Input
Amino acid sequence: MRCLFGVAVLVVAQMVSAADYAIENVSVIPMTFEGVQSNYTVVVSDGLIAEICQSSDSCGADVKTVIDGSGKFLIPGLSDMHAHVAMSDFGDEVPPVMQKMALDSQRQRILQYVLFGVTTIRDPAGVHSSLALRSDIEDGVKAGPRLFTANVPMDGDPPLHPVTTPFATPEAAADFVRETARSGYDMVKIYSTLPVPTFDAIMDTAQEEGIPVGGHVPMPVPFEYALKRGMRSIEHLSGYDMACAGEDAGLEPIMRDVYQGWAYCTPERIAALAQLTAEYEVWVDPTLIVVEGVMTEYDRYTVIDEDQRKHIPPVMLSYDQYLYQIFPAISRAGLEGTRAVRLAIVKALSDAGVPLLLGTDTLAAGYDVHQEMALMAEAGLTPYQILTAATSEPARYFDREGEFGTIVAGASADLVLLDENPLVDVGNARAIAGVMLRGEWWSDERIADAYDGLQTEFAQARELLTQATGNSE
Output
């Protein structure tokens, strides 16, 4: 029986004789409604939330370990719905020392997510080895958040960027979608240059195979047409750039200089597009933080966020150079000039009732989830709206409501214990006193030790990079 406000006990049908943990006297923020359940006990057994009751009812008396939640707040584990943890094969030209650091970086990143309270991630650009990583995490072989993964991104021919896979015909694209679904991937990721016939083939086949399609709204595809065809998620606010630019700007220059269409957005146009989006069942994953880091040529050499950089494995810092290659200096200046537009789109979408996801598309694993939260707050979203994008909406996106993302009986015990109330200030989500990952308790001492261990590894990697390349990056 579910009871959000009363004293009824929530019980999983199958219970073991002794529960693993009881988090007692804690203020629960279940993310099934906007509010706090004060002085509750949450019992965890076999990796699941077994019972939730008011502490006065003394549920879960027979437990192995009691965690004192007095004065603390319990939220569901956070999600990063645009994470990149896939590792491609290395060519012979990559020195072995660099290959080892790159492989180490995957382990380091999935661990670091946990230390920042992130217990679920979605990788929209996976490879075949991503399926093995997903299994290793599920089986407890590797410590990391629950992983959902796409196959490699699908683009038109020629593609926008070399990291995507081009498809010259609708038939080839349809075959790839079938292969993606039957291989066990969780979604199809589409990119920016797909022509309408190929886009249609992808959408038709995905519907037949029962696999969701998310990604960029392809630039040749009209915005509302993409919504009508059933895109499950829109990444990076793509599509809104082309829709704002319209025919007046001319398609060719906007396609050549991606995302510059945001410069044509007006308050009225943003409001209309938000209302249009709300008419369809689609989630939007803004990933504000990734564009935030694409700086002008001057700032590139004068503004360095050392706190963010220390949370990125040193071997991955070269990714910054990739961003500077795909966005020339003029484009980056244009992106910086449309920062207010991106914030306004996020606020308009939220006001219109469009479900949002929280994603980063960056490599400061976990750390940038909290930076993205801060940007959403700057856009004008409330702490509860931001937490919803980071907890319950990811589960709804994957049709997994009740399995994670909320504190309810039967859900996976993915929990974050906080020293402060995040509904007062979403920045309090960083005040982590402990994390529970699928029923495994990570105390603040364990988190601190793991964090220090990662920082030591990063320092050693910087020294090895200096020796191997003569450059610490």
In short: The longest strand covers residues 19-28. DSSP finds 18 helices and 18 strands in the chain. Residues 1-17 have pLDDT under 50 and may be disordered. Residues 444-469 form the longest helix (26 residues).
